[in-house]
Backbone:
C-alpha cells in the first residue's frame, strides 16, 4: 500500500514574477485582459465548432479539444496569479499546490499529444488528400483525442505520486508564480534524484517522442508541398500548417528548455520566464494563432459559407 511521508509544511509562499508593486499592478491588468480574451476566444471556438456543420471535421475536433484544454490550463494558474499580484501574502495551501501541479501536468502532457494528433491530421490532408475522409474517420479521431487525455493523465499521476513521496519540512518559499515540479522539488527535505530522473524519462516519452514524430511528419509534409506544381497551391497548402507549426515551436521550445536538463536543479529567473511562456502565454496565444487567418472560423462567426 502507498503511504505518504509526513510533512510539517501546510502552505507554500509563491515568490511570483516580481516584488515591485507598480510592476505587479501593470502585470495584473495585462494578464487579466489576456485571460479574459483567451476565455472568450476559446469558448467561441468550441461553440462554433459544434454549431457550424462545415466545421465538423477532424481538425476542428482537435482544435476544440485544444481550446477546452487551454481554458482549464490557464484557469488553473492565472486566477491565483492575479490574486497574488494584489496580495501582500502570496500563499497557497499544500493541497492546493499539489492540485495545481497535478492539473497543469495533466493538461501540459495532453497538449503534447494533441499537437501530434493535429500534425498527423495535416499530414493526411496534404500527403493523402484523396484518402483523407477514409483515414481520418470520426472513430479514429475520437480515439486519438481520448488517447491524448489519457497520456496527459498518466504523466500527471506519475509526477504527482513521486512528488508526494517527498518530505517538506523546512523552507516553503517557491521561486515561481505557481506550483511547478522543478520549483517544488527545490523545497524537499529528502533526496530528489529519483524525481529528477522520472522527470527526464517522462519528458522523453511525453515531450521528445511526440516532438520527434511531429518533425518527421513535417518532413513528409514539406516534401509533398514542394512537389506541388503551382505556387498558389504550395502557398495554400503551407498556410494550412502555418498556425500549427507556430504553436508547436512556441510550446515545445520552452518545454524542452525547462525539463530536458537532468543536472539542473536551481530555478532561475530565466526558468520562470520559460515556465510563464509555456504555461500561461502560449495557451493564451493559441486561439488567436489558429483563428487570426482562419477563413473557416471567420465565415462561421459571421454566418457566411466559405467560398470554394
Residues:
Amino acid at each position: 500500500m502507498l503511504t505518504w511521508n509526513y510533512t510539517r509544511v501546510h502552505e507554500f509562499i509563491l515568490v511570483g514574477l516580481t516584488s515591485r508593486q507598480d510592476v505587479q499592478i501593470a502585470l495584473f491588468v495585462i494578464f487579466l485582459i489576456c485571460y479574459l480574451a483567451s476565455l472568450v476566444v476559446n469558448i467561441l471556438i468550441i461553440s462554433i465548432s459544434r454549431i457550424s456543420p462545415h466545421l465538423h471535421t477532424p481538425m476542428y475536433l482537435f482544435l476544440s479539444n485544444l481550446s477546452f484544454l487551454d481554458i482549464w490550463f490557464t484557469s488553473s494558474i492565472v486566477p491565483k496569479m492575479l490574486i497574488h499580484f494584489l496580495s501582500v501574502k502570496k500563499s497557497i495551501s499544500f493541497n492546493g499546490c499539489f492540485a495545481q501541479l497535478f492539473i497543469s501536468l495533466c493538461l501540459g502532457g495532453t497538449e503534447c499529444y494533441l499537437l501530434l494528433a493535429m500534425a498527423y491530421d495535416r499530414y493526411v490532408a496534404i500527403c493523402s488528400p484523396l484518402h483523407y475522409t477514409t483515414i481520418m474517420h470520426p472513430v479514429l479521431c475520437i480515439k486519438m483525442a481520448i488517447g491524448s487525455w489519457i497520456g496527459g493523465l498518466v504523466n500527471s499521476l506519475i509526477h504527482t505520486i513521486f512528488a508526494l513521496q517527498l518530505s517538506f519540512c523546512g523552507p516553503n518559499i517557491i521561486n515561481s508564480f505557481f506550483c511547478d515540479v522543478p520549483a517544488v522539488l527545490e523545497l524537499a527535505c529528502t533526496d530528489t534524484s529519483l524525481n529528477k530522473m522520472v522527470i527526464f524519462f517522462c519528458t522523453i516519452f511525453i515531450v521528445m517522442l511526440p516532438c520527434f514524430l511531429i518533425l518527421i511528419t513535417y518532413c513528409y509534409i514539406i516534401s509533398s508541398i514542394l512537389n506541388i506544381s503551382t505556387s498558389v497551391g504550395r502557398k495554400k497548402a503551407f498556410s494550412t500548417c502555418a498556425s500549427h507549426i507556430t504553436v508547436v515551436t512556441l510550446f515545445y521550445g520552452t518545454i524542452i528548455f525547462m525539463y530536458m536538463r537532468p543536472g539542473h536543479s536551481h530555478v532561475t529567473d530565466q526558468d520562470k520566464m520559460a515556465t510563464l511562456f509555456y504555461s500561461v502565454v502560449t495557451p493564451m496565444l493559441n486561439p488567436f494563432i489558429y483563428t487570426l487567418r482562419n477563413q473557416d472560423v471567420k465565415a462561421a462567426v459571421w454566418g457566411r459559407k466559405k467560398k470554394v
DSSP finds eleven helices and three strands in the chain. The CA atoms of residues 48 and 301 lie 7 Å apart.
